[in-house]
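Sorry to interrupt, but I need a hand with the structure work. Could you write out one complete protein record for me, on any chain you like? Just paste the record in under my message, thanks.

. . .
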Amino acid sequence: KCDWSSDVCSSDLSFVGQAATIERTIAPGLRMQINLNAEDVFGPNGSSLFDTVSDLAQQIRSGNVTGVDSAITSLDTHTTAMQGSLAELGTRSSRLESMQEANSAAGLTLKQQLSDVEDVDLTKAVMDLRLQETSYQAALSATSRVIQPTLMDFLR
């Protein structure tokens, strides 16, 4: 909080969010954290990036060159930590994208395999049906010749 008329700022910034990790299942039996803890990214309360920026502003207002140099060094440290956090998020994002591509490819393969099992070759099915029909007709014809009805068969 700053009173700009007197150039006095108080540094009472604190993290009030949720510090818990958030995980999601990205594959059967595989979970992945999808967030970063703010304290890990910005630093703990009292020595966070925001406290450093506030301290830098205070040192600039007071004209303290040594304090400005110290705050800039601390700001560089926070910048490096944030770059590491961004790299970690980039790695996670890349891993999620590769898992998504692998899942998509696996889905296409499964669809193709299902199609290979379920789809019918229509010409082959018609030919098989005609062959079976011809065999059935031949069997009926042969049976009717072997069993000739007699007059006695009709009288019964």
In short: The chain has a mean pLDDT of 84. The beta strands are 2-3, 8-9, 23-27, 30-33. The CA atoms of residues 149 and 155 lie 11 Å apart. The first strand starts at residue 2 and ends at 3.
